[in-house]
Amino acid sequence: MLPDYLYIIFFLLLGVGFVGSALVVSWFLRPRAPSQAKSSPYECGEIIKGDSRVQFNVRYYLFALIFVIFDVEILFTMPWAIVFRQLGITAYFEMAAFILILAAGLFYAWKKGALEWQ
Amino acid sequence: MIQMVAAGLSCLGFIAVSAMFLIWLERKVSAWIQNRLGPMRTGFQGALQPVADTVKLLLKEDIAPQGIDTLSWWLAPFFVTVPSVMAFVTIPFSSRWIPRDLNVGLLYICSITSVCVLGIFMAGWGSNNKYSLLGGMRSAAQIISYEVPLLLSVLIVVMETGTLSMQGIVQAQHGLWFIAKPHLALAFLIYLISATAEVNRVPFDIPEAESELVAGYHTEYSGMKFAMFFVAEYTNVFIVSAVATTLFLGGWQGPFLPGVVWFLLKTYGVISFLMWMRWTLPRLRMDQMMSFAWKVLTTLALVNLLVSGWMMVR
């Protein structure tokens, strides 16, 4: 029996090979006719104004922060979910308390307006 | 060893054929819904259209705009496509046809498919284009927001079965599919909505809204790199539908027909449903979409988690 990770590494190499070979094959086949106008970034045919890397809306960071909290929470819940039938009712209430604290945090963020886009 | 190589290569072949088939199907379904014919010229009912498209994209010039971030520009197609190939390691096509039944299979699929968002953001950042950057940012925000209800609804299946192995989950549904149980039916609904958002499809296609962002994060990509984004998109649609089939619709189980036929029938059924939604519904606004994810779906998924946990442990 081969180890599980060997399969994952093999599929990783396969994926890289798939994309890489597609790019290499097209590198041999495709035409090359570069020009100044062609290589300007697309902006509906207008002459581009300013830098493309504009300032982000700060909202994106807020959502990212809330996401990190919930993602870690789900990772903590995953092992509990697998064994909680054996652990019985005590484990259920412990996890319920954990989830309710998080839900209270979500409610706080909601009331603070962190979930509003504008 | 030979088994591993054979499984890997057949998965790769399946990905290519499936992506082509889905592109054809999408064009046909959209045509039928809009009361037109769709591709008809190449082959029977335009069946060779994706092949013609591939050849065309192979022969297209590869244009890179000025001022790109070279590293992320080049790595983005890899970061988008490679995870969707890697997810196939543990997709159970039938009782025997699974490259490897990992004991953390479900967690592995969920985590490896969320790597895609890195590639999408790299494409948006690397392109030096305002539309691409906006599309990439929106896409990242959307995918991480819908990841939370998606994982919360997946958790309920884990609680029900007590295993993360994909084959174990399918076997637990022997006799009764999980969608037939009320709390899991709600989880299925939450999963389906979040999965639609995860693969950036209408009504959650604001990252690539044609009418305002041209094509979002892949506006500047052309030739084979663009084709890679397309393959990844349709492979991800297949993966989320295959996971939905495995978790809620009984996987490869079913009477009379062999398992792999049942699995593909159910998966393509879910995909057809997603296509039907795409060509029927209008697009949501950004603020509506984000508040729907956090205020409605996450709350609903948390309540569902607590209630179904109580029902199981009682």
Structural notes for this entry:
The complex is a heterodimer of chains A (118) and B (314). Chain A has helices spanning 4-29, 59-87, 89-112. Chain A is mainly alpha-helical. Chain A has 2 domains: 1-33; 55-118. Chain A is flat. The termini of chain A are far apart. The longest helix of chain B is centred in the N-terminal third of the chain and has 32 residues, at 2-33. The model of chain B has no long low-confidence stretch (mean pLDDT 86). Chain B has one domain. In chain B, helix 3 (70-86) packs antiparallel against helix 5 (116-126), helix 3 runs parallel beside helix 10 (223-248) and helix 6 runs parallel beside helix 12 (286-313). Classes of the chains: A mainly alpha (118), B mainly alpha (314). The interface between A and B is large, with 67 and 82 residues.
How would you classify the quaternary structure?
heterodimer
| Number of helices, counting only DSSP H or I runs of 4 residues or more of chain B | 12
Return the structural class of chain B: mainly alpha
Q: Give the number of DSSP strands of chain B.
A: 0
Mean pLDDT of chain B: 86
Question: Which geometry of chain A do the CA atoms define?
Answer: flat
Which strand-content bin applies to the residues of chain B?
under 5%
Distance between the termini of chain A: 55 Å
Q: Give the integer mean of the pLDDT values of chain A.
A: 83
Spans of chain A of 5+ residues with little confidence (pLDDT < 50)? Answer: none
Alpha carbon gyration radius of chain A: 25 Å
**CA(first)-CA(last) distance of chain B:** 47 Å
